[in-house]
């Protein structure tokens, strides 16, 4: 019989050979409040703290998770039932696994139910870091202007102050204000999302929100709150029922929400935590002064390549990242995109051999055990393509370098957003702009440039003749010859 995961059953689970926390979880202080406890936080930052706790370190840096959205209620329930414990399973390509019960999340609060408890938690003197994995869309900035979007309904309600704060902006800024008023030093706001200059972006968005309420306080924040940049990496798919079944059948653990991830791990973090930080360096975190070269490398090679494989892959009939990347045409296309269009926009990256890095990326994508779905990679494209791929396009256009393969990726997205695959089956477009993007994509059979004429997403790219020619050529191919023939042709072009 599987054992239900809880603090009371840890000893029993340990007897079956699964690694569990052997540190005393009672008395750990929550010095980190984390917004957006999804798969990635639990496979990455929470794993780091667990490793430190296992070494007898960081006992003042336990994690209090926070969910801001109603959708986080399921996580709140799992966390409550399991005392914050969960199983992390790292899957190697040869089928071997490393499994461990992680114990670093010691508390979880649902802001939807009790926003003031969340604000008070952050305002507590024990809190030194507020970290974020709230997705690219969570930062609420306009892709073209870079400005904070103040009329987003949740944000607008927080700004009006009709009730207690409900968004991450309202909650965090209110907590900082209470700390200042109580004479406490501010916590560090540490973004761990896939956004170039994630610390800079977090700084501008949180202070922009504060400025709309109280310009003087925004000035105080800008002067006193630190927002380190970071590059974070570990492919973490959405937990599937088969993962729960696997943890139950193979490890004998009944876990409501385990996490599965690849073994690869990287975290490059700007060393700027005036309120204190865990000894991250003891858990393989690279602390550096300048994160930018690392983050450009990762976002423009790994993340942009994910977009390069997901639409072509899905339209070619694949459903998993490894299936798509094991297709030689797609693998060659990705490698050429990385070499010819992504890499020329990068800065030298200290300590990294880019050739190895790119080869490893293809191997990571091909890991058959991870089972990362193309659906995950195709989701929220309007938040991803403008942040990862369009900067590559713009830099290459400005430098008169090729953009053919990037334009092909954009065209594959446009074809995907028509909402029907090549067998006539419907595609579920998951994107906060799904409805308008789908409507526009449906007109491209008559007007090939309709999709990229959407300046809200693409800015003025439609005015660039070189980009337009490459885009039109790829979209023509997608429509007349199909996705696989087009990616194959582009991979040889
Ligand atoms: N999954 C990965 O492989 C991976 C790897 C590196 C970095 N990341 C970063 O982590 C982010 C989250 O990935 P995940 O796999 O954990 O996703 P997930 O869907 O499992 O979790 C996302 C969390 O963010 C919350 N969230 C979403 N929008 C929000 C908003 N507007 N305000 C507050 N909370 C919000 C969700 O409620 C959820 O708790 C990614 O978007 C990316 O920036 C993910
Ligand atoms: O999670 P997102 O939305 O930032 O992007 C989707 C994937 O590209 C991303 O999650 C990667 O798997 C990850 O960045 C690998 O470290």
TrEMBL record:
EC number(s) per UniProt? 1.1.1.17
Into which EC class is this enzyme placed? Answer: oxidoreductase
**What name does this protein carry?**
Mannitol-1-phosphate 5-dehydrogenase
Please list the residue ranges annotated as the Mannitol dehydrogenase C-terminal domain: 290-476
**UniProtKB keywords:** NAD, Oxidoreductase
**Residue span, Mannitol dehydrogenase N-terminal domain:** 31-279
Q: Return the InterPro entries for the record.
A: 6-PGluconate_DH-like_C_sf (IPR008927), 6PGD_dom2 (IPR013328), Mannitol_DH (IPR000669), Mannitol_DH/Oxidoreductase (IPR050988), Mannitol_DH_C (IPR013118), Mannitol_DH_CS (IPR023027), Mannitol_DH_N (IPR013131), NAD(P)-bd_dom_sf (IPR036291)
Q: What protein family is recorded?
A: Belongs to the mannitol dehydrogenase family.
Q: Which organism is it from?
A: Curtobacterium aurantiacum
Entry annotated with the keyword Oxidoreductase? yes
Q: Which Pfam families match?
A: Mannitol_dh (PF01232), Mannitol_dh_C (PF08125)
- Catalytically driven reaction(s): D-mannitol 1-phosphate + NAD(+) = beta-D-fructose 6-phosphate + NADH + H(+)
